[in-house]
Amino acid sequence: MRARVVAIVGCALLALCIGAFGQSFAPFVVKDIRVEGLQRTEAGTVFSYLPVKVGERLTTEKAQEAIRALYATGFFKDVRLEVQGDVLIVYVEERPAIAQITFSGVKEFDEETLRRVLREQGLADGRIFDRALLETAEQELKRQYLAKGRYGAQVETTVTPLERNRVAINFAVTEGDIAKIRSINIVGAHAFPEKTLVDLFVLRTPGWLTWYTKHDQYSRQRLAGDLETLRSYYLNRGYLDFAIESTQVSITPDKKDIYITINVREGDKYTVSSVELSGTFVVPKEELERLIRVKPGDVFSRARLNQSTKAITDRLGNEGYAFANANAVPNVDKEKRSVAFNILVDPGRRVYVRRINISGNTKTRDEVVRREMRQLEGAFYDTSKIQLSRRRIDRTQYFSEVTVETKPVEGTQDQVDVNFTVKEKQTGSIMLGAGISSTEGFVISGSVSQQNVFGSGKFLSVNVSSGKINQVYSLSYLNPYFTVDGVSAGFDVYKRKIDATNASVSPYKTDTWGGGFKFGYPLSEVSSVSFGIGAEDVNTTVYGNSSPSYQQFIQTFGDHYTYGFGTAGWARDTRDSLIIPREGMLSRASVEVGAGDLKYYKLNFQQQWLYPLSRTFTLFLNGEVGYGEGYGGLPLPFFKNLYAGGPGSVRGYKPFTLGPQDINGDPIGGNRKIVGNVEVLFPMPGAENDKSLRLGAFVDAGQVWGQGQDLSFSDLRYSTGISIAWNSPFGPLKLSAAQPLNNKPGDQIQRLQFQFGTGF
Predict the structure, then answer these.
(1) Is 18's pLDDT higher than 50?
(2) Class of domain 352-424
(3) Which residues of 14-96 form beta strands (DSSP E)?
């Protein structure tokens, strides 16, 4: 039977052919359906998309629907329907499949990253080739390069047909140079120097550190953040009408240089005429008024106003009013250049916490996080307890980020859920310590520790030091929650050899086996006490050129000692962070008492204080005093002497070298020690917003005195210098370069000292 062509459909003429189809046949009952032209697609796939089955009546509408459905699959670039008698024949021409995707000229990205980007756009090996998707993918690749500052990047695509209806796609990339910001201009600024305003920005012109920070590369998000910083700077200094009128970002024709121009209108400077509270007071009004940091006569500051409203809502939150509002309504007097505020207080409804949810702890157990909670389920909502809980979770140092969110429970008016979201961080570390000097060269020691073993919150450390002077092999364990109320318990086992013949002190050797148990008990949220008991077995060796006091000790008391010791300590820590602290105090006191073959005691007290001088500068003060003595007719063992000098003490001097010396000029330590440090910490110039990198300018002082010496502050040694602390991708790095200020003959100098470690 002669075939009747029902419809021939192409992509560009789909509507026209559907219209023609409707004029070419009369409806009929389909006895059979055949599909021709398939190479990779299964016939069943075509049948599943057809709106008509064998035995059903085929109408013009169903034929049009079939054509649309088959095109919508994306598998075919041409579809044709024919009718032979009562048989429907579906002719299809498949789109080619992507056999492979290759790249050339790509250096900025690794190929796997680009393949992932293309996969998100629908292009990947084995998928159906669609030229429209290819054009979208090209634009996405260009966008990726634009995000890296390569505005001159070009992408050319070559599609090569292969056998079995396949294609190979090659992306040839000309990356070009990275465009750099050459200038940032602020037009209309008169109240403050332009340089002062530009220095507030993260974006900047190329500098000596921008190779690392990339802050000389334009980013729309960074510019938006810088504009908000600029706006806040003016609003916090009284310029209530400040506005950014326009921003122009231009790039040179060669796509290498970027120029940013910001036009601002400063307006007048306003003072605060009055501040009043109104609304509903569930807390005494007088108490809320004391929280207001904006006073009449002050220059207007948005920051202080926001701090005031936040303090009020936090205070109400402590009473269970989780959704309290304190809105400051301004009344501006432009003639007097003053503004009055009425803070409207709305406590809302008092609520209690239904559930506390924790997410993000992929390794750390829920119980480890929950034991730090001070807000209880079923209790009234308390902002202070929730924030304390967040700080306690952060201070475990198991997480790099801790956020908290309060959500109302649907269907209720007096219940909320508190959701804590944490981000796990590397809690294991491999630490390397090193020092450089002209006599000892390069000395390395190391340790491997895990603060969060198997997500249990328990601490385990293995320390190995195989230097010429110290050989230490130790195992330490601590369970910070040995009991549910926070009593900690742990132990230490160690073998330690000290070979001072290679050090800068009077020569001797000790070989020590020891161990002990330790316990801690929290007194409050910020203070605790600790106790420990242990025992040591020590063998000592001295030489003919050793200090006479060492030789005298061995002659009198022998060279082998077995003794026990006990320790006790107290600590109070109010620092805001353990990683990068900016404010707060740390106080520590400890005592160690030995009994047995050796009878001695050692006392130590340390006080640290941090105070933020500004948004970027922090003052750090540290003081430490130590005292040791024997009892029961025995002297303080010479290997229990106190020492000073080196990192963590007086930088610029070799470790352990300050203080008394023997007749050979070798340091021997003493029984009294004083160390003090004053340091101003600040961000790296050019990387002010990079919290992982911090500089310091310091002055150190310290000295050690021996038995029979008068304690005189004129004996103190001083040094000054700079320090760098960097939480690098490879681990923490601390470096100091110091210059002694009043070194005397016999002092041993070490100007460069550093520590480096890596995490896992």
Answers:
(1) no
(2) alpha beta
(3) 28-29, 32-36, 57-58, 76-84, 87-94
> Is 647 in contact with 736 (CB distance < 8 Å)?
yes
Q: Which of 593, 528, 543 has the alpha carbon at shortest distance from 567?
A: 593
Pairing of strands 76-84, 257-265: unpaired
Are 607 and 585 in contact, with CB atoms under 8 Å apart? yes
The SS3 assignment for 342 reads strand
- CA 392 – CA 401 distance, rounded (Å): 12
Where helices occur in 457-613 by DSSP H, the ranges are 548-557
Superfamily of structural domain 4-94: membrane protein fhac (3.10.20.310)
The token duo for 512 is 């020590």
Nearest to 375 by CA among 357, 360, 359: 357
The radius of gyration of the chain from alpha carbons, rounded to an integer in Å, stands at: 37
Q: What is the largest CA-CA distance in the chain?
A: 126
**Top CATH class, 180-265:** alpha beta
> How far is 557 from 542, CA to CA, in rounded Å?
13
Across the chain, what does the average pLDDT equal? 86
The per-residue pLDDT for range 121-167, each reduced to its tens digit, is 888 888 888 888 888 888 888 888 887 888 888 899 999 988 878 88
Compute the distance between CA of residue 140 and CA of residue 492 in angstroms, rounded to an integer: 57
Torsion of CA 401, 404, 405, 408, to 10 degrees: 150
147/603: higher pLDDT: 603
pTM here is 0.63
* Number of H-type helices and E-type strands within the chain: 13, 36
Strand residues in 543-615 grouped as ranges (E) = 560-573, 584-596, 600-612
Which of 578, 592, 587 has the alpha carbon at shortest distance from 628? 592
Q: Which fold has domain 97-174?
A: Ubiquitin-like (UB roll) (3.10.20)
